[in-house]
Amino acid sequence: MPTTVEWQDIALRLALTLLAGALIGWDRGVHGRPAGLRTTILVCLAASVAMIQTNLLLMSEGRPKDSFIMLDLMRLPLGILSGMGFIGGGVILKRDDLVLGVTTAATLWFVTVLGLCFGGGQHVLGLAGLGIGMVVLKTLKRLEERLPQDFRATLVVNATASGPTEADVRREAAAASMRIISSGMVLDKSQETRELCCELRWRGLASEDRQTPFVESLAQWPGVSRVQWTPRGLPAASS
C-alpha cells in the first residue's frame, strides 16, 4: 500500500470495487440468493472505503510523546472483517439437517476481502481474486450438480390391514435404489388401519427424480389411503 495516494488512484480503486461487487452480486441475484446486487456492492464498497481511509491516514502522526493514544490504522480493516461475521451469520439458515446460505455468507466475506484489496491499491491481486471467484461461482456449481450426493427423506404410509407391509415398502424402496435406515409403525385396531413411518437414504444426482415414481407406486397399492413424502428440510408433499 503506497504511503501517498492521489484522487485518480482512489477513483480507480472505487471503480474496480464497484465492478467486483456488481459481478459477484449479479451472479447471486439471478440465483435468488438473499445477498443480491445491492447488498454485495455495498459490502464490497464499505470494505474498499475503509481501506482507502486507512491509506489516507498512513501519513498521520503516531502517538505524541505526551499522549497515551496509539493510532493503529490496521484495526479498521480488521474490524470490517470481524463485523462481516454478523452479516454472514444472518444469511445462514438451518432447517432440520439442511443448512442454507453458507455459500452466500462466504460470498459476502469474499467480496469484503476484494474490497480491502482494491481499497489498498492491490489491483492485480484483487482482479485475480475476482476472476477466480467468478470461475468458482459459475463453473463449480455445474460440477456439483453432476456429482452423486446423499439424500434423505421421511415416508409415511397410511393403509388398512390389507395394505402394504414394511417388507413390501422395503422391496419398493430397494427397487428405487433407496434404503430404509429406520422405521416405525402405529396400529389402530378400532379403525383397522396402520401408519408406517420410514426414514430413507439414497445416493444420486440432484437432477434425478426417483421419489415421484416411488411415491406413485406406493399410492397405487390396495388399501393405501395416503402417502406422505418429506425430503429433509423441505415442505411436505402428499398424494
Report how far apart the termini are.
Answer: 63 Å
Strand content: 15-25%
Helix-strand makeup class: alpha+beta
Biggest sheet architecture:
5 strands, antiparallel
In DSSP terms, counting alpha (H) and pi (I) runs of 4 or more, how many helices? 7
Shape from CA axes?
elongated
How many strand elements? Answer: 7
Helix content: 40-55%
The SSE string, one letter per element, is HHHEEHHEHEEHEE
Structure notes:
The chain has about 240 residues and is an alpha+beta fold. The protein has 2 domains: about 5-145, no CATH class; about 150-239, Alpha-Beta Plaits, CATH 3.30.70.260. The protein has helices spanning about 5-30, 35-55, 75-90, 100-120, 125-145, 165-175, 210-220, and strands at about 95, 100, 150-160, 180-190, 195-205, 225-230, 235-239. Strands 4-5-3-6-7 form a 5-stranded antiparallel beta sheet, with helices on one face. α2 (about 35-55) runs parallel beside α4. Residues about 235-239 have low confidence and may be disordered.
Defining key terms:
single chain; Alpha-Beta Plaits; 5-stranded antiparallel β-sheet; two-stranded antiparallel sheet; 7 helices
Topology at a glance:
Elements lengths: L6 H24 L6 H20 L18 H16 L2 E3 L2 E3 L1 H18 L3 H24 L2 E12 L5 H10 L3 E10 L4 E12 L6 H9 L4 E8 L5 E2 L1
Antiparallel strand pairs: 1-2, 3-5, 3-6, 4-5, 6-7
Helix pairs in contact: 1-2, 1-4, 1-5, 2-3, 2-4, 3-4, 4-5
